[in-house]
Specification:
- By secondary structure, the chain is mainly β.
- It has 4 domains: 33 residues; 71 residues, Lipocalin; 92 residues; 105 residues, Lipocalin (Beta Barrel), CATH 2.40.128.270.
- The chain is 6% helix and 54% strand.
- It contains 2 helices and 32 strands.
- Strands 16-15-14-13-23-22-19-18-17 form a 9-stranded antiparallel β-sheet, with no helix packed on it. Strands 24, 25, 26, 27, 28, 29, 30, 31 and 32 form a 9-stranded antiparallel β-sheet that branches.
- Strand 8 and strand 9 form a beta hairpin.
- The longest helix is centred in the last third of the chain and has 15 residues.
Length: 332
C-alpha cells in the first residue's frame, strides 16, 4: 500500500465508486475526496454525435447530415458532400466526379453512386443475432431476441437483461446502461479483428466495460467479410495473372463458393471453422481455351481447393492461403 503524508499526518486511502467507476477516496484529517482514476477512453466515445447508419441494398452506409454538408462513410472511405437544393428532405451531392448523392428523408434515404440508385433504410443497431468473445479473461456476448447476455471471468459472472437502444457512431455502434454490476458500455467498431487464440478475422472489434472490468475481443460472423460483391483475383501464387483473364471468387451466405476460373465457371462449397477456412472440391464447365489459360485455371482451382485460412492485407486485399504457403490475392 502506498502511504501519502502531509503536514497533518498520514493520508489514508481506499477504493470507492463514483458513477460506476473505481475512484480513490482520500481521508486527510476530517476532509474526504473521491478522485476518479484515469482510464483510457472507449473507442468511438468522443466526436460521434449525430451519426446514423443505413442499409442501402445490402451495403451499410454511415452518414452525419448537417445544415451545410453531410459526412458519408462509404466502403470504409469518408466523403464530404455539400448540401444542394431539393424539393423535400435534405439532399447532398459531390461537386466533382465520381457522382455521389445522398438524399436524407429521416428513416429512409436514397444513395446514388455513379448511375446506380439504392434505396436505404435506417438501422437501429448491429444485425442480430450478434455474438462476440474474447480471452484472458474469457468472456462471451450475445445479442438476440431483444436481450443482451454477457458472461465473463470464464462464466463466473453473468449479466442478462432486455436490450436497450444503440447509438450509431462513425465506425460502428455504442450502447450504455446501468446494471447491477455497475455501468455497462459496449463499443462495436466495424474494423477487422483477429481472434487472439485462432487468428480468424471477424468484422467487428468489440470493447466492453462492465463495472471496473474491461473486456476486449472480436465479434460478428467471419463469413460476412467474404460474402457480398465478387472478389477479383490479382495474384496467384506470387506469379500474377494473365492479362485480361478473369478469375473471381463469389462467397454466398449459404456456403456456396463460385466464380470464373479464367476459362470456365466453377462452383463448390466453403466453410469458416474455428481454425480458419476450408473448401471442398470444385466442379467446372468444360469449355476449352488457350493452353496458357487452361494451365492457369488448373493452378487456380488446385490452390483454391487447398485453402486453410484467410486474412486481409493492410490495403484491404483478401488473402487465401494454403498450408504450403501458396496464396490467392483478390480485391473488390
Amino acid at each position: 500500500m502506498v502511504r501519502l503524508v502531509d503536514q497533518a499526518g498520514p493520508i489514508r486511502w481506499r477504493l470507492c465508486r463514483l458513477a460506476g467507476w473505481p475512484v480513490v477516496l482520500l481521508l486527510a484529517g476530517l476532509g474526504t475526496a473521491c478522485i476518479p482514476q484515469a482510464r483510457a477512453p472507449m473507442p468511438s466515445e468522443t466526436g460521434d454525435a449525430g451519426w446514423a447508419a443505413y442499409q442501402c441494398d445490402g451495403q451499410t452506409v454511415r452518414a452525419r447530415a448537417g445544415e451545410d454538408q453531410a459526412e458519408l462513410v462509404l466502403d470504409g472511405r469518408a466523403k464530404s458532400l455539400p448540401r444542394v437544393r431539393s424539393a423535400s428532405g435534405a439532399r447532398y451531392a459531390a461537386t466533382q466526379p465520381p457522382r455521389i448523392e445522398f438524399w436524407n428523408k429521416g428513416d429512409q434515404a436514397v444513395l446514388v453512386v455513379a448511375d446506380e440508385t439504392r434505396e436505404c433504410r435506417r438501422l437501429d443497431g448491429p444485425a442480430r443475432p450478434f455474438s462476440a468473445r474474447g480471452h484472458e479473461p474469457g468472456w462471451a456476448l450475445a445479442l438476440a431476441e431483444g436481450r443482451l447476455t454477457l458472461d465473463w471471468q470464464y462464466g463466473e459472472k453473468t449479466l442478462a437483461r432486455p436490450l436497450g437502444p444503440f447509438k450509431a457512431t462513425r465506425r460502428g455502434w455504442r450502447y450504455a446502461e446501468t446494471t447491477g454490476h455497475g455501468d455497462l458500455t459496449l463499443a462495436l467498431d466495424e474494423t477487422i479483428c483477429h481472434d487472439s487464440a485462432t487468428g480468424v478475422p471477424h468484422p467487428m472489434t468489440v470493447d466492453i466495460v462492465v463495472g471496473d472490468t474491461r473486456l476486449q475481443g472480436c465479434g460478428g460472423r467471419p463469413e460476412n467479410l467474404l460474402s457480398g460483391p465478387p472478389w477479383r483475383v490479382e495474384d496467384l501464387n506470387e506469379r500474377g495473372v494473365i492479362d485480361r483473364s478473369m478469375l473471381t471468387l463469389e462467397f454466398a451466405t449459404d456456403g456456396t463458393l463460385a466464380g470464373l476460373a479464367g476459362c470456365n465457371r466453377y462452383h463448390g462449397a466453403y466453410a469458416v471453422t474455428g481454425e480458419g477456412l476450408s473448401t471442398g472440391s470444385f466442379a467446372a464447365t468444360r469449355k476449352a481455351c488457350a493452353p496458357a489459360l487452361m494451365n492457369q485455371e488448373a493452378r487456380f482451382l488446385e490452390t483454391l481447393q487447398a485453402v486453410v485460412r484467410f486474412s486481409f492485407s493492410e490495403t484491404g486485399a483478401l488473402v487465401l492461403e494454403t498450408a504450403q504457403g501458396n496464396r490467392i490475392l483478390a480485391r473488390r
